[in-house]
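Example record for the data management plan.
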Amino acid sequence: MIGPLPLAGARSGWPAGRVIAALITLCSIALAIKYFPGLESSQYYAGLTLQAIMPDALANDPVHGLALSVSGTPYKLSAFYLLPRLFGELWLDDRFVLPFYILMVAASFLAVDRFARLFGLDGLAERAVCQLMFMRDHQIVANKVIFAHDPDFHHSALALPLSLWLLYFGLAGRGWAKVMVMAAVMAAVSLQVTPTSAAIAIAALTIGTSPGRQRLALATLAAGLGAAYVVLFHLVAPPPADRAELWHLLTTLWFKNMADPFNTIRDGLVATVIGNVLFVALCLATLLWRGPAEAPIRRLRLVAAVSLGLWLAAGLYVHFAPPGLQHPQLLLFPYARQLQGPQVVMYVGLTALVLRWARRTAAPWQQAVAIFAIGALFVAGPGNHLQWAGLYAAGGAAAAALLWWRSRASAAVDGGLSVRWVAAGGLALAALVGSSVSTLSRLPDLAHLAQTGIHGRSAQAKWVGVAAYLRANTPPGSVLLPLEYRGETTPIPDFSTLTVRREIASRSGRAVALPYLLGHGLKLDYFRWALRQRQTAFAIGEDWMRGDSAAVIAGLTLLEPSPDYIVVRTPEAGKIGGLDFPFRAEAEINGWTVLRRIAGKGTVLP
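Corresponding structural encoding:
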């Protein structure tokens, strides 16, 4: 086998640590360019940032309104919103937020390097393989396993790096106090995804430690389970009569396969089966691949065992539980969200086991198996699999050719195959091509960001000018009904239908007459009301496109809260009108028409 090449290290004067630091920086920037969505690009969090800055914003909103307690609105329960309170309206500028996003991505890459070294990888090429492995998403079940959170930059985006560092403290045996502090920080930011990572990190302290530390860890786990039981079954449990209906609504309309790995509603049967098979294979490979009996490796196998057990328990319980055993409060912690961090750790751990296994053998077939295994790990996940596999194969072949040429050119270099450098070459080419293509495709979005402060890929981009107008020219307690083309920010927009979404709230600070199911916790009356309101709002969009003024007027009378302003695409604004229509056009901005309710017809504005 060929040893470490003089590309980094003592002979070249390039310490491996500096090369890895540079690689982390480049990878973080590349992923940020590819995935950065801008602030609150997801409608579920729209308005929370501005409300953190200006507490009176969204006063009459059905999800985040001022009449609602913080404890009754789960999306407000995050220390993440201390950041916009600290920085003020600077946090509404994506140009200001982007560096924080890059640092968040870099924190995950740095954690991966720490795991790689913890699992016995010290060479430059081996550590680079672990970094480059995460230049694409490895979502094989309903969990986002990518360091650059693409739906939105909110508290869930911080959950993955926090989870990784919490798990690292546990698997590295850093001590009970450090693990507990990290668990507390993670819970303060994103309570929903904390339990499994915290439990694994604490349980890891029972492996390879003193009896006293083992007893402390076990006592902590027992106390945590007891506290969870009290909270889940005595403080937040819904009334028994509501449980079955809440369970049905959450499993069919909200969490779906995030809570139940056997649920096929979202992805279909074939994709669900493939994803589950891959996840089980990852867990079993991590458990069974031959490796040393070192404490970190034994703790790694604990991660795989807990992950496999949680996957199986979630599938059996959520999919098959009879009505008497259905407790919807348990669905608030879906298994897929719990396993984001553990899956990354298994990826790094299995990569380390494969590379260390390849070190110990010169058999060509075993080295070929190792190269194939790393390629399979890289390709697994969403995307064009043939394209990624082809790039990996081409890069690996180029690296192998370079190694062969060096062995022929220098008698000081042994001949043979170097798994770590072939794998690194394959991943490097795939990452380089993928990053180059994504960067070129994002140039218009980045130009939009530079000009407006809103990323061109963000769902907020379409509201440039409109949100500012509404914030400046409408009373703070106003309620909006935004009507946009269905999926107009997707690659194939549908201009035949109008729909309602909430993103306009983010920078306008005005309420939107559209609730969503889990806005106020497990309250069945709210669920039922929210479903009716959503159906009414969506029907208004459909009736508007048909030009059915009577149906639109009837729908507007049913909405709660009643909208004071309608914002609709200008080409469609004239389809509804007449003496009975209680709105009149007030302004036209960037392809949108703002309609204001006429005083005396419904809500009267000052």
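Summary line stored alongside the record: The radius of gyration is 27 Å.
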